[in-house]
Amino acid sequence: MATTRPGPNLSRIAASLGVSVATVSNALSGKGRVSAELVERIRATAAALGYVPSQAGRALRTGRSGVLGLVLPDISNPLFPQIAQAIEYSASVAGYGVLIADSRADVGMQTEAINRLVERGVDGMVIVPRRGTRISDAGCPVAVIDTPSTPGNTVSADHWQGGREIALHLGSLGHEKILLIGVSPSSNVQNDRIGGIKSALGAKVKTEILWIEKIEERDGPGCLLGLADKVRQGFTAFAAVSDLHALRALTELQKAGINVPDTVSVTGFDDLIWSSVVTPALTTMRMDMAAIADIAITALVDVIENGGPIERGGPGETFADEPPPGSRLVTAEKSRVPMQLIVRQSSGPPGPAKTNLSDGELST
Amino acid sequence: MATTRPGPNLSRIAASLGVSVATVSNALSGKGRVSAELVERIRATAAALGYVPSQAGRALRTGRSGVLGLVLPDISNPLFPQIAQAIEYSASVAGYGVLIADSRADVGMQTEAINRLVERGVDGMVIVPRRGTRISDAGCPVAVIDTPSTPGNTVSADHWQGGREIALHLGSLGHEKILLIGVSPSSNVQNDRIGGIKSALGAKVKTEILWIEKIEERDGPGCLLGLADKVRQGFTAFAAVSDLHALRALTELQKAGINVPDTVSVTGFDDLIWSSVVTPALTTMRMDMAAIADIAITALVDVIENGGPIERGGPGETFADEPPPGSRLVTAEKSRVPMQLIVRQSSGPPGPAKTNLSDGELST
DNA sequence: AGGCATTGATTAAACGATTAATCAGAACCT
DNA sequence: AGGTTCTGATTAATCGTTTAATCAATGCCT
User: In a mutagenesis test of the A interface, which of B277, B289, B358, B361 is the best target, namely the one with the most A β-carbons within 10 Å?
Assistant: First the structure.
């Protein structure tokens, strides 16, 4: 049973060159004092032997694993691919790996998932909290991606501003009765988006909020939202807080024979995968996940490697009880990243017919 | 600079009880010979001190990191949440963590992503290959989730059977002219699904394949697929190889004023997140990702921990050059997992009107 | 009673990398 | 020439865990 890794280690390189392990280590890390010529020879043989440093050995000695955790309590969230991709990329640029943890939308398992990560020795973690939950002590530095209005948030998209932009867009098109579609008022993200929308609409614009959660409680999951009725009531625009619900609205309206965007407009949020391929393509707000991930990872890594932006007093400062990097909520300078309006085909000026949509509604 | 982890280690427990580290290790792992009473005391103090074993120390000694890699070359794939969730769950049940790697749909970066995982010391990896790529030597045990018809596949959904079931469903509804919608013939998964569909249709049923890739080459990404024309040509059903394309077809048809399912039917694959909430809800084939993940992880872990199902000769067998666990393509006993038909509202008997769909097409 | 197996613990050696401390030799200065 | 500094390398300790080898003590058998 050969449990040892096959690859060569530092001592093999050292032996093959007749030098000490320490010298090899220094040469490869560029830290100690090694002659340029020897560095070159060591580099060469390391490459020739196919040397891969053992993370285990390094981690044991340095106390750092080089791995970050990514906690997504609601992994079925269709945003996940975007988030995971961006976080993984930023982390790998910073030299870190990403361990995923899922709590299957169960609030109780969130703590368990976090513990699993801690037991695996992550140096820090990025948490996208399930709506309404607060992050308890994790035992390592933590970056939170939620909303700017949530206390403890590290960085996130500026959902409020995103809401404003959508509202401005719909307002400028001339909509005066807009239905806002959300799932649950317990979500900070949704509240911010809706708040932003409301704040940017002129006084004469009427809005109403439809909470999907409430309707599904009555009619079951996947039920109709009764949007045709809303059209009869004079609503000309449907602004959903996510492309998933925008899609739901779009198809429900289409099925009812209501033309989008000729008669009513539909907008979403997040520019999810399908938004650009449905007909009509969805007008939506896109988050700059790459920037968000970059800020989160940078701040997190800074805390891990430098202790973070703690009060840097003048020289002579006492480091008496500098808190160990256990459980610090990381903060970033720039905590809100603007969202970008993507105008596609699902939004346009309000249609003429507001009542009687029985026939001739379609324009091909 | 306190680089040491804060938590207590084995020696702290040992010291606090006046026993040796080895005894503590044995007690906690249940391997050596320790009296039941002492085991209990050690367990208790370990818990009291909040002991968390150091993965680094363990990994260094045992040569195993307890971490698996998950490579998804096309991370933007909307299936990702399902896959990641299932793999993470099975892995964590088996006592492993999951490190993600993304190659951003770039074929060249697939190797790089794999290397990153190997450098991080994963014990094995699960790869969902980008369509058409073969997995080169990875330097550790590898489980591949692709299609049963791909050489080297470890386990996957039975896409062919899935195709057959969809075909049987549409056939039994009475459809006789079906348009098959795929992206690219270079995908094994898509080919299997389409092959399955064709194989189960009666001789009198006509089919035609529409490759989205080809159309988009001409008209640009997100363009219309010209499905209204197809309806005029007499097609009454549209079977897409993924819910993403089914959705694209559905909305395009609806926008054109064609009623689904009254006039034509639309079916998809994979039961993606939106399938149950659009109107009409999509009829689709669901993969049993939990079972697939479980089989893949079980096989992978078996190879890692036991050397896998290699030829177990009688006793006296020489283990002269037993191959180290470097780069073994894992195989599983059960390599194809049946897909399940989910009948919703997007499929029904073919509508009466096959020509002239100018007016009165809608039935609310 | 003496020899032997069993139990319950300890000792000590790894695993692979990092790094502070040390050291030999060369160069430099007065 | 003698002392100091600098360079380029080595020595050795350390991180925390696992595990083979060892050992003392006890119980059992003939």
Answer: B277
pLDDT digits (tens, 9 = 90+) for B22-42: 999 999 999 989 999 999 999
Q: Give all strands of the β-sheet with A237-240 in edge-to-edge order.
A: A206-211, A177-182, A237-240, A265-267
Is 3.40.1190.20 the CATH number for B159-286? no
Do residues A66 and A92 make contact, with C-beta atoms less than 8 angstroms apart? no
Secondary structure (3-state) at B124: strand
Contacts with A240 (C-beta within 8 Å, 6 or more apart), sequence order: A180, A181, A182, A246, A248, A249, A266, A267, A268, A269
Measured CA to CA, the distance from residue A114 to residue A71 in angstroms comes to 7
Residue among A122, A235, A195, A324 nearest B99 (CA): A122
Q: How far is B356 from A117, CA to CA, in rounded Å?
A: 61
Per DSSP, which regions of A194-262 are E strands? 206-211, 237-240
- Start-to-end CA span in chain B (Å): 70
DSSP B217: H
Chain B positions touching A65 (Cβ under 8 A) are 55-56
The candidate with the shortest Cα–Cα distance to A136, out of A104, A156, A108, A105, is A108
- Domain B67-157+290-308+326-338 belongs in CATH node 3.30.70.1350: no
CB-strand contact B28/D, under 7 Å: yes
- The pTM score is 0.89
Task: Please say whether the beta carbons of B145 and B127 come within 8 A.
Answer: yes
User: Residue ranges of the domains in chain B?
Assistant: 10-53, 67-157+290-308+326-338, 159-286
Q: Is the dihedral of CA B238, B241, B242, B245 positive or negative?
A: negative
pLDDT digits (tens, 9 = 90+) for A255-294: 999 999 999 999 999 999 999 999 999 999 999 999 999 9
Neighbours of B200 (CB within 10 A): 19
Residues B312-350: tens digit of each pLDDT? 333 333 333 444 445 688 999 999 999 999 999 999 999
Most B CBs within 10 Å: which of A120, A215, A259, as the mutation test of the B interface?
A: A120
CATH 1.10.260 assigned to domain B10-53? The reply is yes
User: What is A67-157+290-308+326-337's CATH topology?
Assistant: Rossmann fold (3.40.50)
Type of residue at A92: S
CATH class entry, domain A159-287: alpha beta
Q: Same topology for domains A10-53 and A159-287, yes or no?
A: no
Contact B6 A324 (CB under 8 A): yes
Chain D bases closer than 7 A to any CB of the protein: 7-12, 14-21
- Peptide bond before A261: cis, by omega within 30 degrees of 0? yes
Residue that is written with structure tokens 């430098």 in the block: A306
The three-state secondary structure class of A72 is strand
Exposed e or buried b per residue across B77-95, where buried means at least 16 C-beta atoms within 10 angstroms of its C-beta: bbbbbbbbbbbbbbbbebe
